[in-house]
Amino acid sequence: MKGTLLYTADAILEQWHVKVYQHNELLDQGGVIAYQTKDIVKMKAGHYFMKSKCEFLVRE
């Protein structure tokens, strides 16, 4: 994985493009986070990811 692990709140405020990984496998090439709850992150493209299962990294 290449990138910087981030806190999703920062990514939402700054509109950063992030990649999403699960078990070192790339799930999402990069997008902007629309919103988050305690358990999930929703990307602006409409994809949902569980926080407990995924890592969110700033896209380089």
SSE layout:
Elements: E1 4-5, H1 8-14, E2 17-22, E3 25-36, E4 40-43, E5 48-50, E6 55-58
What is the C-alpha radius of gyration, as a whole number of Å?
A: 10 Å
Side-by-side strand order of the widest sheet: 1-6-2-3-4-5
Helix content: 10-25%
Class inferred from helices and paired strands: mainly beta
Largest sheet: 6 strands, antiparallel
Q: What does the overall shape look like?
A: globular
Mean pLDDT: 84
- Counting DSSP H or I runs of 4 or more residues, the number of helices is 1
Entry summary:
This protein is mainly beta. The protein is 12% helix and 52% strand. 12% of the residues are buried.
How would you portray this structure in words?
The protein is mostly beta strands. The protein has one domain: SH3 type barrels. 12% of the residues lie in helices and 52% in strands. The protein contains 1 helix and 6 strands; from the N terminus they run βαβββββ. A hairpin with a 3-residue loop joins strand 3 and strand 4. The chain starts with a strand and ends with a strand. The relative contact order is 0.33.
